[in-house]
C-alpha cells in the first residue's frame, strides 16, 4: 500500500517538476531587462527631449526644452533586443519615429504599436564620454538636435560624432514627476 501511495505522489509531482524545469530553462536562455525611465539630455544644448508643447497629437515634432521633472520629458525604455529599445513618453504614452527620406529627417510623435515586434526601436551605443549615440534601427541614422529659429528640433541624420548627436541618459523615478 505504501509503495502504491509513493507511486501516486511521484505521478502527481512529476508533471509539476517538468513544468518548473521547462520554465527555468526558458529563463536561463534569455536576459531579463527591466523597464526604466529616463530623461534624455542633448550634450550640445543641455536640454531635454520632449514632444513640442507637450502635445499628445500624432505627428507632433520632437524638440528640446529646459529641464523640468515633467512626464512629457521622461521616457520609458522598453527592451527590444541587445542595446535596443522602444521609447514611450510618460505623458503621451507615445513614441517617436523618423518620418520621410533624406539626409536630415524630422522626428515625429507616433502611437506605440501594440505588437512589440512592430514598434519603432532605437539602438543605444555608449560613447567614451559616457553619453549615448541613439540610432534609428530602421534607417541607421543618429538622433540629432538642430537649432531652428527660436526652438531646437530633433531629427535623424548620418552620424558625425558631433555634440548635437550625443545624448545623456538621466535615470528618473516616475513617481517624482509632475504634469
Residue ranges: pLDDT <50 for 5 or more in a row?
13-31
Major sheet details: 6 strands, antiparallel
Number of domains: 2
Question: How many separate helices?
Answer: 1
Number of E-type strands:
12
Instruction: Briefly note the structural class of the backbone.
Output: alpha+beta
Strand content: 35-45%
Secondary structure elements and their pairing?
Elements: H1 2-28, E1 36-42, E2 48-51, E3 62-65, E4 75-81, E5 84-89, E6 94-98, E7 105-111, E8 122-126, E9 132-136, E10 142-148, E11 151-157, E12 167-171
Antiparallel strand pairs: 1-4, 1-12, 2-3, 4-5, 5-8, 6-7, 7-11, 8-9, 10-11
Structure, described:
The chain has 179 residues and is an alpha+beta fold. It has one helix and twelve strands, in the order H-E-E-E-E-E-E-E-E-E-E-E-E. The strands form three sheets. A six-stranded antiparallel sheet has the order 9-8-5-4-1-12, with no helix packed on it. Strands 6-7-11-10 form a four-stranded antiparallel sheet, with no helix packed on it. Strands 2-3 form a two-stranded antiparallel sheet. 26% of the residues are buried.
Key descriptive features of the protein:
179 residues; alpha+beta; Trefoil (Acidic Fibroblast Growth Factor, subunit A); 1 helix; 39% strand
Short recap of the structure:
By secondary structure, this protein is an alpha+beta fold. Helices cover 15% and strands 39% of the residues.
